[in-house]
Amino acid sequence: QLRPVESGGGSVQSGGSLTLACAVSTQTDSVYCMGWSRQAPGKEREAIVAVGADGTASYADSVKGRFTISQDFDKNTVYLQMNSLEVEDTAMYFCAADPSPGWAKRQCTLTDIPEKYWGQGTQVTVSS
Known about the structure:
Blueprint: E1 5-7, E2 10-13, E3 18-23, E4 33-39, E5 46-51, E6 57-59, E7 67-72, E8 77-82, E9 91-98, E10 122-127
Parallel strand pairs: 2-10
Antiparallel strand pairs: 1-3, 3-8, 4-5, 4-9, 5-6, 7-8, 9-10
């Protein structure tokens, strides 16, 4: 089981857009709990979107309506489309993909995903 690998981070002005990608070593249609978190300097890690076994995405209020998660099953890649970026979105963004079958019976909770299923992160910086 290889860790996911994030890409697509960078610097953008407020109001701009970025798309992050997360390459997963497991068939994404076999991943029962996946999503994105972020951590800004000096702040706690924040779960921003989680997708469970039923495919339903749950977004944090801070990104709802601006961020969208999607998957390319052929490429085993998960994307995070980020629009209307704000300075407050500046953070390191981490992707997680946990294929453990136990998630099929419970709500996907990113904070419960073991470290081994997390990527190393990609930096997003939004300037005013």
